[in-house]
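Quick one, probably user error.
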């Protein structure tokens, strides 16, 4: 199983960091792609650098690298997670505008009917953002905005991040105990 993890320039790169940590712990192979804006948000929001994230991944590709295997539907990967997903990348994916590797691998996932999870982050959402999400949802793309639940009584930011990442892992079919589930509380 190989999961492609894409980081774009929306707030919330901490979710990608945690996802990569857990996937590595579980022995899941990952390919990492980070947009230029994503790199800037990593510098702004994380206490670790891009190198830390690259070291967590099994392989890393530049977003301009269309010679990457990820750019082709003939390459085998299980799923793509764009975490977090900017409104720009959301719009590009919704319109099949594959001008970088992240948009291209999303395009490949859609055309090959593979799992694609987008974690869009913006507030408030405009009608453009909502229409793009609706269009993609109707194509089978999973739209997972990082919205925490509070029934598990989170006590820290880490608890909130783990809830969101745990729900992404659930959707990928990867068992995890990152958060308290309703029914177990
Ligand atoms: C610190 C910072 C936070 C940002 N947060 C968001 C955000 O939450 N959502 C969003 O859609 N764009 C956000 N942006 C703007 C995007 O980075 C910008 O639209 C960029 O073109 C996205 O490109 P990419 O999708 O290729 O990464 C943010 C930019 C910066 C510098």
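Nope, works fine. Designed sequence:
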């Amino acid at each position: 199983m190989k999961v492609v993890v894409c980081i774009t320039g929306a707030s919330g790169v901490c979710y990608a960091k945690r996802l990569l940590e857990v996937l590595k712990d579980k022995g899941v192979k990952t390919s990492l792609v980070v947009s230029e804006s994503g790199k800037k948000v990593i510098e702004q929001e994380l206490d670790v650098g891009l190198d830390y994230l690259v070291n967590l991944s099994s392989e890393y590709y530049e977003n301009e690298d269309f010679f990457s295997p990820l750019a082709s539907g003939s390459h085998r990967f299980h799923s793509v997670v764009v975490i977090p997903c900017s409104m720009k990348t959301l719009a590009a994916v919704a319109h099949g505008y594959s001008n970088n590797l992240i948009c291209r691998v999303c395009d490949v996932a859609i055309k090959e009917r593979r799992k694609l999870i987008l974690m869009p982050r913006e507030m408030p959402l405009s009608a453009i953002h909502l229409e793009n999400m609706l269009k993609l949802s109707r194509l089978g793309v999973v739209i997972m905005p990082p919205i925490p639940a509070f029934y598990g009584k989170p006590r820290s930011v880490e608890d909130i991040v783990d809830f969101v990442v745990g729900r992404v892992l659930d959707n990928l079919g990867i068992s995890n105990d990152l958060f308290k589930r309703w029914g177990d509380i």
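Residues 162 and 178 are 5 Å apart (CA to CA).
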